[in-house]
Amino acid sequence: MTDTEHAATPSEKPVLFALIAVVAIYAVALFLPATAGYFAPAQHEATHEEHAAPHVLAVLPFALLLGCIAVLPLVSAAAHWWESNLHRFYVAAGLALATLAYYLARGGTAAVGLTLEHAILAEYIPFIVLLFSLYTICGGIRISGDLPAHPATNAAFIAAGAVLASFIGTTGAAMLLVRPLLETNRERKKVAHTVVFFIFAVCNCGGLLTPLGDPPLFLGYLRGVDFLWTARLWQEWLFVNACLVAIYYLWDRLYAYPRESAADVRLDETRIRKLKFSGMFPNALLLGGVVASVAFLDPSKALPGMDWHPPVYLREAVQLGLVAASLAFGSQPVRKANQFSYGAIVEVAVLFIGIFICMQPALQILHDQGGKLGVNTPHRFFWATGTLSSVLDNAPTYVVFLEAGKTIPPLEGDPVFELPDGRIDERILAAISLGAVMMGAMTYIGNGPNFMVKAIAEQAGVSMPSFFGYMLYSLCVLLPILAVMTWLFI
Predict the structure, then answer these.
(1) For strand 142-146 and strand 273-278, is the pairing parallel, antiparallel, or unpaired?
(2) N or C: which terminal CB in the chain sees fewer CB atoms within 10 Å?
(3) Is 474 left (phi over 0), alpha (psi -120 to 50) or beta?
(4) Do residues 401 and 384 lie in contact, with contact meaning Cβ atoms separated by under 8 Å?
C-alpha cells in the first residue's frame, strides 16, 4: 500500500490537525502551574445536593427535546427539515438555553456554572469523545466478501456482532458488520427480517457487558459504576442473545430461505467471495487502546497498584490521540469503501449537547423525589426504564432512573452498590441497565445505531419495515424473550 493510500484525505486533514492541536494544548496545560490544579478529579465532582430540586416545569425543555427526536422524523411535513444537523442543533441549543435561563433566574451565574460543569465538563465531553473515537476508528476497518447467504451464515454474523458489541460498542460493531452482511445477502429477496434481528442483537442487546457497549452504560460508568460491574449480567446477555440467534435461525431456515426463488439461490451459491479484512492495522490496536483508556484512566479512581489518579481529561486526550493516529496512518481507500463520513456522529453530538443540559432539572427532581413515583422494585425499574427507552433515547432514560434508584432503600439481603453521591440496590441497578440496553431495540428510535443500520440497509435496496412494522417484530419476538428473562433473572 502506497504512502498516498495512507495519507489523510484533504477533507480529513482539518480534523487531523484539530485533533493534534487539542491534544497538544492539553499536554501543555497539564504542566502549567496556573492550570494544573484544574485537572484534579475533585474539581469536577458536582452533585445534585448542592442546590434544591427545581420546579417540575423546568423539565419541559427536556420533554420537548425528546419529543422532537421521537416525533419529527415521523411527520412528513417536518422530516426533511429535521434531517439537517444544523436544524437539529437549533432545536437542541434553543431548549438548552431555555434550561440555562431558568437556572440563571433561580440562582444566578453560579447556578448556571454548576449546571454546565456537571452536564458538559463531567459527562458530555467524556461521552461524546468515546463515541467519536469508536465511530471513527471502526470506520477505518472494513470486512468485505460475499458468502453463501445460508441461515447459519447470517446467524453467525448476528452472533459475532452480539459479542463484539460489548467491546467496540453497538455503533462500532454495527458499522463493522452490517455491510458484509448485506453484501452476503444481496442475491436474496427476503432480507428485511435479517436486518431486524441484526438491530435487536448487534445494535442493542449485545452491548450489555461493558460501558463501551452502549451509551447508557457509559453514562453509568461516568457516574461511578465500576467498569466490569455489568459483566456480571452475562447470564441475561447470553439468554437473550442466544434466544434471538436461535429464533432467527429457525425463522430463516424454515420460513424465509425456502421461499427464495431457485434462480436467486443458484446465483447466491455461485457469487462467492471469501471474507477479506482491511484496515486492521493500525485500527485494531487503536481500538484496544480506547478500551484500555476507559478501563484504566478514570480520574475518580487510582491506577491499580498505584497511588496516582489520572488527571481529568487524560482519558479523552488519549482517545483523541488514537483517533488522530487512525486518520494519519490508516488506509483511506478503506474509509472510502466504507462510505465513511462524520454525519452520524455530528448528529449525536448536536442532539446530546442539548439533552445533557436539558435533563439536569429532571435528574435533580428524581434524585430528591424518586421514591415517590411508585417505581420501587427491580421488576418495575426494568419495565419503566425499558418502556421509556423504547420510545425515547435510552441514554438519558438510564440516567433518570439511576437517580430514582438511589432514593429507594435497598431490599433486605440485597447487595448494595456504593456510588460517589449515593447508594443503590444492585438488583435495581441491574434492572435499569437491562431495561435501557435491551429495550432500546423495541423501536427504531430507541438507540442511535438502529436508524443508522436501517438507512444503510435501505441504501442497499432492502425494503425495511415501517416504524410500526418494525414494532410488530419487536412485540412478537423480542418482548416475549425479555418477559421470560425478567421471570428467570430479575
Answers:
(1) antiparallel
(2) N
(3) alpha
(4) yes
Alpha carbons within 13 angstroms on the beta-carbon side of residue 436 total: 29
Q: Is 47 helix (H, G, I), strand (E, B) or coil?
A: coil
Query: The pTM is what?
Result: 0.86
The cell 422532537 sits on which residue? 68
CA distances to 284, 380, 416, 418 from 120, rounded to whole Å, are 30, 30, 29, 24
Instruction: Write the burial class of residue 464 (CB in 10 Å: 0-12 exposed, 13-18 middle, 19+ buried).
Output: middle
Spell out a b/e string for 79-117, using b for 16 or more CB atoms within 10 Å of the CB, else e.
eeebeebeebbebbeebbebbbebbeeebeeebbebbbe
Spatial CB neighbours of 346, under 8 Å, sequence gap ≥ 6 = 85
**How far apart are alpha carbons 94 and 61 in whole angstroms?**
9
Tens-binned pLDDT, residue by residue, of the chain (490 aa)? 444 455 566 668 899 999 999 999 999 988 887 676 777 765 444 444 445 789 999 999 999 998 888 788 778 889 899 989 999 999 999 999 999 999 999 999 999 999 999 899 988 999 899 889 988 999 899 999 889 999 999 999 999 999 999 998 998 899 899 989 999 999 999 999 999 999 999 999 999 999 989 989 999 998 899 999 999 999 999 999 999 999 999 999 999 999 999 999 999 999 898 899 999 999 999 999 998 998 899 888 888 788 888 999 999 999 999 999 999 999 999 999 888 888 878 888 898 899 999 989 988 887 777 777 788 899 999 999 999 888 767 888 898 899 899 988 888 888 999 998 889 999 999 999 999 999 999 998 788 788 778 888 888 899 998 888 899 999 999 999 999 999 999 9
DSSP codes of every residue in 322-390: HHHHHHHHS-HHHHHHTT--SHHHHHHHHHHHHHHHHTHHHHHHHHHHGGGSS--SHHHHHHHHHHHHH
Closest Cα partner for 331 from 281, 276, 277? 281
- What Cα–Cα distance (Å) separates residue 150 from each residue in 101, 186, 248, 369? 57, 12, 12, 53
- Unique residue bearing C-alpha cell 432512573: 401
